[in-house]
Amino acid sequence: MRILCLPYTHTLSHISRPLAIAAELRARGHDIIFAGDSPKDHFIRSEGFDVLPAYQVEPDILFNRIRQGKLQFVSDDELYRLIASDRDLYRQVQPDLVLSDGRFSAPLSAGLDGIPQAAIVNVSSTEYRALPYIPFFEWLPEKLVKRDGSLGKSLDRFNLALEMLVFDNAATVFKKLSRKFGLRRTVTATNCLAGNDLTLLADIPEYFPTRNLPADYHYIGPLTWQSPLPPPAWWPPKNDGKRLVYFTMGTTWMGGSFTTLYKRLQQEGLTAIIATGGQAQGLETIEGEVYVEEFVDGDLVMAACDLVVCHGGNGTIYQALQHGKPIVGIPTIPDQQFNMRRVKALGVGEALAPKTFADHPEKLFALARQVAEDSRYRDHAKRLQGQLASLAPAKKAADLIEARFGRN
């Protein structure tokens, strides 16, 4: 098959997941072409794939809307432009299949042009999630409403129905275009990241449960980035018996200042490795205290560290759990807040509000010590590590794609 991959290439998580599947499909003889338009496209090219130009909404615009709680996260004009860009690519590539990750125009454009479409997505961005995205009733005390009791579950179902109704009616352009194009599947703001024909859930049921899951939705497990980067020149870090903490805030963190973090670290008696994701300049490595890199092999560092401090990104959380490491998160967008609620519920870490970190950075380090020193967090993380070790997500995704779309 000729497969066109449409990820949102401004974030590494949306690049790494289709890259892992694309590598598996390429090894099976399929022709894979990517499209994007960001400085991070070089990660795709470095794996030997072509990247065609494609319009994308700038991350500052998109993530600022999300952080501000704007339910209409994409304008009508932007969506029309995305669809036009998709269709130009279809005419150029003539794909047998479109595989998207974070491209919310893909189900509309692929449906309009009659091209099969699969998508990689997290359970939190589907209409089949079993847990509310924004828990309206979280303020109710546990002694009054048991979360796993019948009343708690009823409130969750009401919560889910209400939040989807509000979201879909705040961004009605998806439903309007579905009707205009005469699509067989109605695309909404809630399901616009899913696939028309196949949806690959990059999660595990214990972490993100679902309800009423249809036959074309499949859990495959987390697809985490396998970095091609060599170890830094200073590796391994010298920590002289101090706890080693890995700080990684992805490539879109808006939760605080790396400079504040850097300065505070020198007062805390920890050894830290900071991956800035290219979001900070002028921070120098101080041997034995703080090691700074733009990008680093996360698996290498996580295997050596005692604790992971992150922005609550799904990929980073799963990567930490694959190494059995507890987590402290500073989430800045609803997806990350949703992730960190699950981290807390599963007993593998704790969260800190961005404003708390900005106003009182010392509280981050107090929380980090608490999580690192309490063996229960590590024990729970180790249990999930064992479960994740048995999965082969890229292989399972490729098997599903070939079974659904492959030519005989």
Task: Walk me through this protein's architecture.
This protein is α/β, with parallel strands linked by helices and 408 residues long. The protein has 2 domains: 2-221 and 391-405, Glycogen Phosphorylase B (Rossmann fold, 3-Layer(aba) Sandwich), CATH 3.40.50.2000; 244-389, Glycogen Phosphorylase B (Rossmann fold), CATH 3.40.50. The protein has 15 helices and 13 strands. It has helices at residues 12-27, 41-45, 59-67, 76-93, 106-113, 150-170, 173-181, 258-265, 298-304, 314-322, 334-345, 354-359, 362-373, 375-389, 393-405; strands spanning 2-7, 31-36, 51-53, 97-101, 117-121, 198-201, 217-219, 244-248, 271-275, 290-293, 307-310, 327-329, 349-351. Strands 3-2-1-4-5-6-7 form a 7-stranded parallel sheet, with helices on both faces. Helix 1 (12-27) links the parallel strand 1 (2-7) and strand 2. The radius of gyration is 21 Å and the shape is globular. The model has no long low-confidence stretch (mean pLDDT 91). This is UDP glycosyltransferase. GO terms for molecular function: hexosyltransferase activity; UDP-glycosyltransferase activity. It holds the Pfam family EryCIII-like_C.
What keywords describe this structure?
14% strand, Rossmann fold, UDP glycosyltransferase, 13 strands, alpha/beta, 2 domains, seven-stranded parallel beta sheet, UDP_glucos_trans, 408 residues
SSE blueprint and pairings:
Elements: E1 2-7, H1 12-27, E2 31-36, H2 41-45, E3 51-53, H3 59-67, H4 76-93, E4 97-101, H5 106-113, E5 117-121, H6 150-170, H7 173-181, E6 198-201, E7 217-219, E8 244-248, H8 258-265, E9 271-275, E10 290-293, H9 298-304, E11 307-310, H10 314-322, E12 327-329, H11 334-345, E13 349-351, H12 354-359, H13 362-373, H14 375-389, H15 393-405
Parallel strand pairs: 1-2, 1-4, 2-3, 4-5, 5-6, 6-7, 8-9, 8-11, 9-10, 11-12, 12-13
Helix pairs in contact: 1-15, 4-5
GO molecular function: hexosyltransferase activity; UDP-glycosyltransferase activity
Organism: Trichloromonas acetexigens
InterPro entries: EryCIII-like_C, UDP_glucos_trans
